[in-house]
Amino acid sequence: MNRTRILALLLALAVGALVAACGGSDSEEAATGGDGATSAAPSGEPTKLTVSYSWPTVDFMAVPLVVADEMGYFAEAGVDVELIFPPDPASSAKVLATGDSDIGLITTTDMAFAVKEGLGITAIGNYTTSNNWGLFTKPGTPIALDTLKGKKISGYGDSWTKAMLPFVLDAAGLTDGDVEVVTVDWDLPLLLNGKVDVATNTTNFMVSGVVDETGEQPGVLLAKDNGAPDVPVWVYAVNDAFAEGDAEAVTAFLRAVGEATVWASDNPEEAVKMFEQAYPDNGYTTTFNTAGWEDTLQYVRGADGSLFLMDDAQWTALAEALKGIGELDEVAPAAEYYTNDFISMD
Question: For residue 127, which of 10, 143, 234, 314 is within the disulfide window of CB 3.0 to 4.6 Å?
Answer without folding.
Answer: 234
